Amino acid sequence: MKRLRLSGLLLLILCLSLLAIPFWNDRIVRRYIDKIWLHRTNSIEKLHEFEQEYKNFECDVLFLTDSATFEIGHDEPSGEPLKPYLDFLGANPDRELWLDLKNLNESNCIQAETTLTGLLAQRDVDKDQLIIESRDWKALHHFTQEGYYTSCYLDIPHIDELSDAECLHRLDSIQQIAHSGAVSALSFPASYYAFLRNLDFSVDLLTWEHRRWAWQLPFFSRSRAILKDGRVKVVLVKEKGHYHK
Q1: What is the bridge-based pairing of β-strands 185-189 and 130-134?
Q2: pLDDT in tens, 82-138
Q3: Which of 88, 129, 158, 233 has its CA 20 to 30 A from that of 194?
């Protein structure tokens, strides 16, 4: 009988603990609401679907030089313009948007910046409401000089297979970018965090746990460390909803 009561008590404690987890996790997520942004918001419908749950968003953008326009799109233009996103920012000056400029380069960066600055002025959007990201840190330098917050996307293929010499060479290259003054931040998948965390950066860090939902972050030691790291300014998380593209 005592064993039965003990088993029942343990089961009750387990059930209460499981019920408490979402509330505990939600408290942690809410504590970092300015840091946790929604990844790949590649339709304005998705942004509006989640605007009550997330404060800030990230989307993929292509600059079309022939028409001097920006369109949402990861690999190909989707036909969806950037303008509705900027209208959202203009109506919500406390919100921010991370633009992953997929095709930015040194040949189109001046035209892209001039076009974007004009769009912001038309919609009363502050440059501080944007993060401009690209793999081309030299192209980003122009945006940085014009007062934008910029981030160089770090791509390190087969990071777990690098030799010690290759690691040192790669880290030295990253340090050069960080200290160049060309960018405001470095952005990378969260899987790179252990590789980069001990470097002496003079810039901010941005990352993405794109396979995890916001409520899952407290369950993982890496995610908890990233949330607590003051150098990391943004953590992108996954959530598809009904309008994911």
Answers
A1: unpaired
A2: 999 999 999 999 999 999 999 999 999 999 999 999 999 999 999 999 999 999 999
A3: 129
What are 153-164's pLDDT values in tens digits? 999 888 888 898
Q: Looking at the DSSP assignment, which residues form a beta bridge with residue 37?
A: 236
pTM of structure: 0.88
First to last CA, the chain: 57
Tell me how far apart the alpha carbons of residues 114 and 234 are, in angstroms, rounded to a whole number: 26
